[in-house]
Amino acid sequence: MQGESTGTSGRMLRLLTLLQARPNWTGEELSDRLAVTVRTLRRDVARLRQLGYPVEALSGPAGGYQLAPGGALPPLLLDDDEAVAVALSLRQAAGGGLPGFEDAAVSALAKISQVLPRRLAEKVASVQTSTIGLVAPRGPGESVSPENLVVLASACRSQERLRFDYLDAEGRASERHVEPHQLVHSARRWYLVARDRDREAWRTFRVDRISKPAGTGIRFVPDNPPDAAAFVAEGLAVAVYPVQARVVLQVSFAEARKLVSPLVGVVERQRGGALLRIGADDVDWIARFLSSLGCGFLVLDPPALKDALARLGASLIRNSG
């Protein structure tokens, strides 16, 4: 059976290649090229149509087939996991994850979107339109199920309430009922930004800690959703730390965003500069980070950060001789 399935798939691929090679073919020509009967050819055409490929029948004495407009690009036969993997890889490359290949990645995404069958195209589109990247991940990250990722992305796109099991940082398990907003990938991890209906608040969920996600079939209207990327960035760079500071950087907003990674601090627009909100385990680390930026700044709070900067400055003067 496996050999028959493999042979059928290869023959269908050859059939698609022939159909995109010229505008139209008679059934007899195609059956001769593929070395199959006309009946087998009709079954293969029916299978392609079931997969979503636009194969049209031609009228006339000899009949025939043609690939409809939009179907003349090289064919792709991808399963669900492969389609999601291609979309995520190309999206990362297009966003700068593979320097020098951004334009090629964007072009490839556009082509793939045109040739994928509708069922797979919708899944790919869900991931693309429901995901924001803060920075390109480097190195291996947490394992995420492609099936779970598709369920979450599809729910974000269709605005459908979700239920899933969640394991928090302390290892406590709970069931969550949420209104999903957007997926964000950062620091080699995936995050879901969603409104937790039981807690009546916006929350960030690590996708690798989510299990058994399922749509409820209930649609919703988003209630004042946050900027998903900023929401996750603040959680990673500020909210989780015991020491938090606000500093005005005396450079433009655009320049400040170049100086400060979104995983280190949150940069906001401020008249006459840019406001940096940053967190750390101690003020000395923040002082050292600020001194490395190479720009002027004004500490708003906490006062302990000013003392740490004074100590750092005195130490540098002593060490300079």
Strand content: 25-35%
Order of helices and strands: HHHEEHHHEHEEEEEHEHEEHEH
| Shape, principal axes of CA atoms | elongated
Number of domains: 3
Low-confidence stretches: 1-6
Q: DSSP helix count?
A: 11
Kindly provide the radius of gyration, computed on alpha-carbon positions and rounded to a whole number of angstroms: 27 Å
User: End-to-end span in angstroms?
Assistant: 81 Å
Mean pLDDT: 80
Largest sheet: 6 strands, mixed
What is the number of strand segments?
Answer: 12
Question: What structural category do the secondary elements indicate?
Answer: alpha+beta
Helix content: 40-55%
What is the fold's blueprint, element by element?
Layout: H1 2-21, H2 27-34, H3 38-51, E1 55-57, E2 65-67, H4 80-97, H5 102-115, H6 118-129, E3 131-133, H7 146-158, E4 160-167, E5 173-186, E6 189-196, E7 201-206, E8 210-219, H8 228-239, E9 243-249, H9 253-259, E10 265-270, E11 273-280, H10 283-291, E12 297-301, H11 303-320
Parallel strand pairs: 3-5
Antiparallel strand pairs: 1-2, 4-5, 4-8, 5-6, 6-7, 9-11, 9-12, 10-11
Helix pairs in contact: 1-3, 4-5, 4-6, 6-7, 10-11
Describe the structure.
The protein is α+β, with helices and mostly antiparallel strands. The chain folds into 3 domains: 2-67, Winged helix-like DNA-binding domain superfamily/Winged helix DNA-binding domain (Arc Repressor Mutant, subunit A); 80-219, no CATH class; 241-320, Alpha-Beta Plaits (2-Layer Sandwich), CATH 3.30.70. The protein is built from 11 helices and 12 strands. Strands 3, 4, 5, 6, 7 and 8 form a 6-stranded mixed beta sheet that branches. It has a 4-stranded antiparallel beta sheet with strand order 10-11-9-12. Strands 1-2 form a two-stranded antiparallel sheet. It is elongated and about 95 Å long. Mean pLDDT is 80; it is low at 1-6.
